[in-house]
Amino acid sequence: MSAKAFLALLLEDEPLIAMDMELILQGAGFDVTTVVSCVEANNWLEVRRPDIVIVDIMLRDGPSHNIVERLIQDAIPFVVHSGDPVSMYAETAFAQGPWLSKPSSPDELVGAVLALLAT
Question: Which of 14, 80, 88, 99 has the fewest Cβ atoms surrounding its Cβ within 10 A?
Fold first, then answer.
């Protein structure tokens, strides 16, 4: 990891989407780690602290609600990247992060992440 690169954790279980998002974020200068399950995310978060997390709601082992609650508790910024409408999650922890609808453009993804890091 380079000294100035932000560390991004990507929670995404769809391989093609994950690869595309990794390339976009790496192209914007991020170091990216991708995990496909809540168990993997929890294990990763036990030993590392990302600068930003991009969260898909449904992972291989179920919804990532507990991960998002952990991010909120640990004050780690996150962006939700989902094909579901934001209104479905208005009363949940997911609503505390900016929402990107799938599919999102590279500019939307990088813009949302950089805007959140700038706050």
Answer: 88
